[in-house]
Predict the 3D structure of the following.
Amino acid sequence: MTVLAVGDVVGAEAAAWLAARLPRLREEHRADFVVVNAENCAVTGPLPMDGFGMTVEVVDLLLEAGVDAVTGGNHSWDGPDVDEVLARPQVVRPANLDETRGRGLLTLRDGDRVLTVLNLLSPTAALPAMKAPQPRELWPSWTGIAGEQPLPGAVLIDLHGESPWEKAAFAHALDGRISALVGTHTHDPTLRGHLLPGGTAYVTELGMTGPLGFTGGGFDPVHFAARLRGEDFTRLPAYQLATGPLALGAVVIEITAQGTASAVRRIH
Ligand SMILES: [Fe+2]
Ligand SMILES: [Fe+2]
């Protein structure tokens, strides 16, 4: 089985750009399943913490283009359409927090190919001001999820977190028990894909899919800089998307019928 995993889509233009290229990407890489983190696919709001979510219009654009699962993160609760977006059966929000809407994991089936997608939000990526419920610690959350029900098929986790070491530690802790762990949230892609000794594919950060200007995060970092300087960043104008060429943050993962990853490679 071949899985195409795409990192945080930033802005509606990038979503349309990805949607237009998806059929060709799918064919070129013979992808059976496409998993896209789209937590920033619609930059809507004037407030710094509310402008980075999803809208149902943009999510539907991705789904109509063939995305099989849309994952999220700390921004899954932002934007004007949270209820409707989380109600889409292909949308997965972080599982390790108290939320009754939507789902934290999703099992995709295509013939004898079965892939379960699980989204987890690290407490390191949970800002105090965010609307998302506060996430629970990763390891107890994982043991709760995997202990209650065996996860069907190959398992891919989108771990939305701030710390590379934490992502690596979690991947190693699950090595051989899941097929792949892909990191999201920090937006700047990490170079290497790893095949861990037990057969789990791991990449620290998929990287954002969106405009490359400024720091490569997809938007102007002026608010982050102001906050670091101790200034009242909420008085600044709304976040602006970066300009410049669009980048794809993505990897292709090959998984055997036994659920062991055999290859992970970055694509551009
Ligand atoms: Fe993001
Ligand atoms: Fe995030």
